[in-house]
Amino acid sequence: MAGPASRRRWRRLAALALLLALAPGPPAAWAGQAPRPAERGPPVRLFTEEELARYGGEEEDQPIYMAVKGVVFDVTSGKEFYGRGAPYNALTGKDSTRGVAKMSLDPADLTHDTTGLTAEELKSLDNVFTKVYKAKYPIVGYTARRILNEDGSPNLDFKPEDQPHFDTKDEF
Predict the structure, then answer these.
(1) Chain-centre distance of CA 69, in angstroms?
(2) Where is it chiefly localized (predicted)?
(3) Which domains does the chain have, with CATH numbers?
């Protein structure tokens, strides 16, 4: 009959065997291959309102950017929707969070401000942010408003986890 130490050893071996069996495959080093470096996209940057406005789809040779929830997306691949004269061009060159939440192109709604949005509008915002913008368009930066004060100084009280309707862990 096996003692307690033998049973613990057996459980550890069984757990290790299960872990190895469920692993998606051996690491590259086990297979005799050099590990590949992680693929990286273009570097991200902070955009002031003035800088973001330069990417509103008016210039034929410029990329088209828009921001939702302070995240700047390159929507150039959707030029037929966001380019000059296109149906959603009003959303470009700015943070249009409120307009996306309300499904509105009213100039008064083309702002970052989410004050007074209903629970349904906030749910819609999160859904469109995740299933449309994050799923289809590369992130090229963030609006300066997310982490800076009005005077441009760092907002020392900024904590992403405290921002309403905002979850940075899902952005990377």
Answers:
(1) 9
(2) endoplasmic reticulum
(3) 46-146 (3.10.120.10)
- Beta pairing, strands 65-68 & 71-74: antiparallel
Helix locations, 88-151, DSSP H? 97-102, 119-128, 135-136
Q: What is the pLDDT of residues 118-132, one digit of tens each?
A: 999 999 999 999 999
* pTM: predicted TM-score of the whole model, two decimal places: 0.67
Which value, in Å, is the radius of gyration of the alpha carbons in the chain?
Answer: 23
- What's the chain's length in residues? 172
Q: Does the CA dihedral 99-88-132-67 come out positive or negative?
A: negative
| Residue 49, C-beta contacts closer than 8 angstroms, at least 6 positions apart | 94, 95, 143, 144, 145
- Maximum C-alpha span of the chain: 82
Strand spans (E) along 28-118 = 45-47, 65-68, 71-74
